[in-house]
Design goal:
Blueprint lengths: L4 H13 L1 H16 L5 H18 L14 H16 L4 H20 L7 H40 L4 E4 L2 E7 L4 H18 L3 E8 L5 H16 L3 E5 L3 H10 L7 E3 L2 H11 L10 H4 L1
């Protein structure tokens, strides 16, 4: 919304004349809604930032429009506030309410006899504050989506470790559902580990994968093919009876890929294939 010059002048003068009272009451309202989640000093600073942004939009050299070319500094202040609150876990309602609260403050000033604003000017102020609140909400949403995307990526990396089991043997223990995004992370981390360690064998352990359907199988096969292109042989372990039945029922073919029922058997196969002599020792009980 664009505010004409006369209305800007009246609104700016009103806000400047009652700045301390407005900031004080504004902070009190925000404090009640946030229930102590920010310190009084921090909240007062943020309220003053929004107040200054509003005054800048109404300034003599501004165009009275949140989206206007002269309001870039105000938008930057509001955007920084929105991003900060998104990172701190505040809700979009709490973020937008900090801006909208100034309308309640101005109304209360009139009722308390501390300062009265003409009805038409209050309506103009209300529409301008609404535009500021909507801009804050939109910025908050984008910032929150970015935070969620970063957290998702971090969780994917944490949930797909590639560990070195022996010289020349690495393993990827998969736990949970394997979707396209996670499969890509698995492939990238496995290939990078193969390069870093020079390993010739990779074990993909699916013991922790609850179910294997056609899509999951395709992701696993792509990972195996990518590893082979890097010169490493893959072994799939963790083939439980239920998974074996599902694979057969779906008609999924693993071709010449070695499969084992557990990680220990897969490691034993990889060690023997790499030329390591493995001797099974009898348990102490049997020896006695």
């Amino acid at each position: 919304m664009k505010v004409d010059a006369d209305a800007r002048q009246r609104l700016s003068a009103f806000l400047a004349a009652h700045e301390e009272a407005i900031v004080r009451h504004w902070t009190e309202i925000a404090t009640r809604s946030l229930r102590g989640r920010l310190t009084s000093a921090e909240l007062t600073r943020q309220v003053r930032d929004v107040f200054d942004a509003l005054q800048t939009i109404l300034g003599e050299h501004a165009d009275g429009d949140v989206a206007g070319a002269e309001s870039g500094e105000s938008r930057a202040a509001l955007a920084e506030l929105s991003r900060a609150w998104a990172r701190q876990g505040f809700s979009p309602r709490e973020t937008a309410s900090l801006v909208f609260a100034v309308k309640e403050v101005v109304l209360n000033l009139g009722e308390a006899g501390e300062g009265d604003l003409a009805t038409t000017d209050f309506l103009v102020l209300s529409l301008l504050v609404d535009d500021m609140g909507l801009f804050t909400f939109e910025t908050y949403t984008k910032a929150r989506e970015s935070v969620i995307a970063d957290q998702t990526e971090q969780l994917l990396e944490l949930s797909t470790p590639v560990v070195k089991l022996w010289d020349g043997v690495v393993a990827v223990p998969l736990v949970g559902t394997l979707d396209s995004a996670r499969a890509q992370v698995v492939m990238e981390k496995l290939l990078q580990t193969l390069v870093d360690t020079g390993s010739g064998y990779a074990i993909v352990d699916i013991t922790g994968v609850p179910a294997v359907d056609t899509q999951v199988a395709q992701h696993i096969l792509k990972t195996v093919v990518a590893a082979r292109l890097m010169g490493a042989e893959c072994i799939i372990s963790g083939i439980r009876p239920q998974i074996a039945q599902t694979v057969v029922a779906l008609g999924i073919e693993f071709g010449d890929i070695v499969t084992k029922s557990n990680l220990a058997d897969a490691l034993l196969h990889a060690l023997r294939a790499s030329g390591v002599e493995v001797v099974r020792r009898a348990s102490r009980d049997k020896a006695l």
